[in-house]
Design a protein that fits this description.
It is a single chain. By secondary structure, the chain is of the alpha/beta class. The chain has four domains: 228 residues, Flavodoxin domain (Rossmann fold, 3-Layer(aba) Sandwich), CATH 3.40.50; 141 residues, NADPH-cytochrome p450 Reductase, Chain A, domain 3 (Up-down Bundle); 108 residues, Translation factors (Elongation Factor Tu (Ef-tu), domain 3); 157 residues, 3-Layer(aba) Sandwich (Rossmann fold), CATH 3.40.50.80. It starts with 11 loop residues before the first helix and ends in a 9-residue tail after the last strand. Keywords: FAD, Flavoprotein, FMN, NADP, Oxidoreductase.
């Protein structure tokens, strides 16, 4: 296999193997060693490598993902499940790993050939974040790859590792930076003499076919390529040891089931009900707060900011006293949603369960030989209910993927339904599934011959990912609240997504509608994400703020920040500060009184509102209308620009308007406008929180490819 990359020299990996003994079984926390991060978790990958040493002419695959809210992770885990489910004779094993959980050097070294007929392939599934940056979980790896540290490792390796890259992006947002992460990774590897083993793939969330179809096409070609390298030499099944039924634990019922991936053991409801915990993702106070260890925040208040509007604009106020949650003004908060009760009721009916979901309590474990950890803790000491798992952990609301449709087609008992599912998986995916926003429950209702158990679903459903929202309160405000003996708070402002479909159905965004059901004294799991969305240190630096809809949230936090600064130092002066705000009509303006007071107090200098529905005016029109003012702020006085929210195309239209202003006033060619925007970005004066387009529906989100 991979004849062009064969080498007889020993693999660098073999010289750097992690001990799989007792040291690797310690708590899975990263430890700094020699200025690098050592992850005991990687021992499982090392175990994958060595558990198949006796295999002949087989491939081990490590799939590393860089994902902001789950799309890249979903693709990676879906490919793994598909490959292992097919038991390809050329495949030894597949491991999926979060790039944040692996030392960068180890991920690259794994792609080096070991010998004895065993080959390793590393597939990087990489999402673009923002204007061409790596995602949070991939930043450490990406920075290392682009640094001199990787040069020293790879140029001295004497190997030609086996790599493949699939990038995720959106060509509608900043086409000049489309697929920047994947393309730069490929160039970097090429510069180091490490060519890709297969052509780089690109998924376009703004393209006609859709990102899922793009991945499906590339994935099939990639897998076919791997098969062809085998040349028919691998005739046996995969080398993984078949799972053995685990020995029964004392005091547990004997009935054990398996979905081929996990073992399940049902428990007596009355005996174990008191051991159920509130959240499956239970916070561990010995670890820092993270997406894998979220903290449950108490909601202090919930209110509708626009009672006269047909569309809700909601604000949640979280109490953060005596919690590990800290933030700076301009940061984001990740909130974990739950599936709606309606979806759960529909699914429960489809599954035809003998026992209600909330009374099915079980444990889950992987086979003894497995390299994979359980997706969540489900032991006799900490069991879970089926209702908890399907409401908190697995996403029932998202659009079904082609991979999931393939699985469902295999479970259909009627040939006509099987054939239709195959069509939906391939040629009709965009029109028949994605554009209609069909989820797993919709598909199961449409095709009643599909026979699946709840255990089957736990093996294939994508995990719920947190959604990110701008924090609409100021950290400095909390300092003043402490002085007054008041609670510290964290505010989030959002609008529940309700999207009527042409066929009469309605799509409800998972997180925004879940948050809309919360009330005072409820809890929501969360983690704060640090942002670069910061006010200039010099208060005299001019600023331009562009906000659409609930994109006013971080601007409101900035205004609160300045209000506190003014209270502390009444003589403080602020430079020109312009806020352009876009809404559909007057009923949708939020924080109007606060903004007008800020204008009166000199916290901002100008405030203009654009009404898209009643006046047909967009923020881009307002930019042109006040062109000289904006030119003076951004170009003459080198001010900062902040952008958040709006309808689909909001950012592009605003940038186009700014370019038009610059070229008009300077009497310069169009290229001058592009150069000016690029200069602002390089100087850190152009900051944006991302609007993501879900098909044709505008959604205010904060930087991912899958946010609703």
């Amino acid at each position: 296999m991979f004849k062009s990359t064969l080498s007889s020299s020993a693999s660098l990996l073999s010289r750097r193997c992690i001990n799989v003994g007792s040291s690797s079984r310690k708590a899975a926390s990263s430890v700094v060693k020699n200025n690098t991060l050592d992850y005991p978790f990687f021992s499982s990958v090392n175990r994958l490598f060595h558990s198949n040493r006796l295999c002949s002419d087989k491939t081990n695959m490590l799939i590393c993902f860089g994902s902001q809210t789950g799309t890249a992770q979903m693709f990676a885990e879906g490919l793994r499940s598909e490959l292992l489910g097919k038991k390809e004779p050329w495949l030894a094993n597949v491991k999926v790993v979060d790039l944040n959980d692996i030392e960068p050097e180890k991920a690259v070294e794994f792609g080096m050939q070991e010998g004895n007929g065993l080959y390793n392939v590393v597939l990087f599934v990489m999402s673009n974040y923002g204007e061409g940056q790596p995602t949070d979980n991939a930043k450490q790896f990406y920075d290392w790859l682009m640094s001199d540290s990787s040069t020293k490792v790879l140029q001295n390796a004497g190997k030609k590792p086996h790599y493949a890259i699939f990038g995720l992006g959106n060509s509608a947002n900043f086409p000049e930076r489309y697929q920047a992460v994947g393309r730069k990774m490929e160039k970097r590897l090429n510069d180091l003499g490490l060519s890709l083993v297969f052509k780089r793939g690109e998924g376009d969330d703004g393209g006609a076919e859709g990102i899922e179809t793009d991945f499906e096409v590339w994935k099939n070609e990639f897998v076919q390529f791997l098969k062809e390298q085998d040349n028919g030499t691998s005739t046996s099944q995969t080398c993984s040891v078949p799972p053995e039924k685990p020995k029964e634990s004392e005091g547990l019922p004997p009935d054990t089931t398996s979905n081929g991936k996990y073992f399940f053991r049902t428990l007596e409801f009355e005996k174990y009900r008191d051991k159920l915990r509130q959240f499956i993702r239970e916070y561990d106070s010995s670890q820092s707060v993270s997406p894998k260890n979220p903290y449950s925040l108490l909601i202090d208040s919930a209110k509708n900011l626009c009672p006269r509007s047909s569309r809700k604009r909601l604000e949640l106020e979280f109490a953060i006293d005596n919690t590990p949650i800290n933030y700076e003004t301009g940061d984001h908060i990740a909130l974990f949603p739950m599936n709606s009760p309606d979806l759960l009721r529909r699914l429960e009916k489809i599954l035809k369960l003998d026992t209600p979901m909330d009374r099915i309590i079980f444990t889950l474990q992987t086979p003894p030989c497995s390299i994979e950890s359980p997706p969540f803790v489900a032991t006799p000491e900490k069991p879970v209910s089926l209702h908890q798992v399907l409401s908190q952990f697995y996403d029932l609301n998202g659009v079904v993927t082609p991979t999931l449709l393939t699985f469902l087609a295999e479970k259909a008992t009627e040939e006509s339904e099987k054939a239709k599912l195959e069509q939906l998986r391939s040629v009709e995916y965009l029109s028949g599934v994605k554009n209609r926003m069909l989820n797993i429950v919709d598909i199961l209702e449409m095709f009643p011959s599909i026979r699946v158990t709840w255990q089957d679903l736990i093996g294939v459903l994508p995990k719920i990912q947190p959604r990110y929202y701008s924090i609409s309160s100021s950290r400095l405000e909390n300092e003043e609240r402490i002085k007054r003996g008041e609670k510290q708070i964290l505010r989030v402002t959002f609008s529940p997504l309700v999207w009527p479909q042409p066929d009469g159905r309605t799509f409800y965004g998972l997180c925004s509608n879940y948050l809309g059901t919360l009330k005072s004294h409820d809890y929501c799991q969360s983690v704060v994400r640090t942002s670069s969305f910061r006010l200039p240190q010099n208060p005299m630096t001019p600023i331009l703020m562009l906000a659409g809809g609930t994109g006013i949230a971080p601007m409101r936090a900035f205004i609160d920040e300045r209000r506190v600064l003014k209270q502390k130092n009444p003589s403080i002066k602020f430079g020109p500060s312009v806020l352009l705000y876009g809404v559909r009509d007057e009923t949708e303006i939020i924080y109007k009184d606060e903004i007008e007071m800020a204008l009166k107090d000199g916290l901002i200098s100008d405030f203009y509102v654009s009404f898209s529905h009643t006046h047909g005016k967009m923020i881009s029109d307002s930019i042109w209308e006040h062109s000289q003012l904006i030119y003076d702020i951004l170009k003459t006085n080198k001010g900062h620009m902040y952008m958040c929210g709006g309808v689909a195309g909001f950012g592009t239209k605003c940038y186009d308007a700014l370019k038009k202003v610059v070229t008009h006033i300077d009497n310069a060619p169009a290229e001058a406008g592009d150069a000016f925007i690029d200069l602002m970005r390089k100087e850190g004066r152009c900051l944006r929180i991302w609007l993501i387009k879900l098909l044709k529906a505008p959604i205010l989100c904060k930087y991912s490819s899958r946010c609703n």
